[in-house]
Amino acid sequence: MIMDPHLLRYYEQGGELTRLRQGRGRLEFWRTRDVLLRTLPPAPAKVLDVGGGTGAHAEWLAAEGYDVEVIDPVPLHVEEAAALPGVRARLGDARDLPVPDGAADVALLLGPLYHLPERADRVRALREARRAVRAGGLVVSAFISRYAALHDSVRLGTLPLDGRVEVEYRTLETGEIVSAREGGFRGYGHRPEEIVAEFTDAGLPRPRVHGLEGAFWLYEDVDDWLDDDGRRELLLDAARRLECEPSLLGVSGHLLAVTPAVTPVGDL
Q1: Rounded to whole angstroms, how far apart are CA atoms 22 and 259?
Q2: How far apart are CA 86 and CA 67, in angstroms?
Q3: Per-residue pLDDT reduced to its tens digit, 56-75
Q4: Strand partners, 50
């Protein structure tokens, strides 16, 4: 298992424990949960939560009755996830999953593909997910939008900082995301059409691509909407109605692609 030292240091800071459980990150959490609940086979289907972090999604999946195993390359994440009720967790790499063929009903990759800057590694991870899932099961993967970093830089007011314009515009060209904060996030941002091509090259059918947050993640008062149960449900319903509109996919901070796993004729 090869782990980028910068990435390991970033996640060892422990921010992933709260990222989806507090603040505006809850919109990504609730929308991911919303799509999964409408998509997954019924419990107790077996779910491999690959790159599942500290178990933010594994926790509620286990509570819903799913058989959940987190596979993550960060020891701190594995420790935190393993402490959750009904969740198993172990170290592993999305490009070389430590499971036999057809071991699961669902493979979730809700983080790995935006931490693999090389396209060959992303396709390899998708192929591994296809291998690990039974025929007819699901492969679900999350992506960061290519345009999210520039949107966020304007929202946070960091675009005028020295050198940021060049960095953010380079992201538009290359997909490489580099945070303005020392020791901050680094990753890869996808264009929506790239997602389809990578799934195809991995031997998977064309996925259904969902824009998770729409433009709502950029609104200053999004926390107020998420804090109020009634307003939150209204916000989630609004995002749901726009989730597959092609003209709006790129404005979402995150994209979620879903497809059934099949065995191509050449692999039989």
Answers
A1: 29
A2: 8
A3: 999 999 999 999 999 999 99
A4: 71, 109
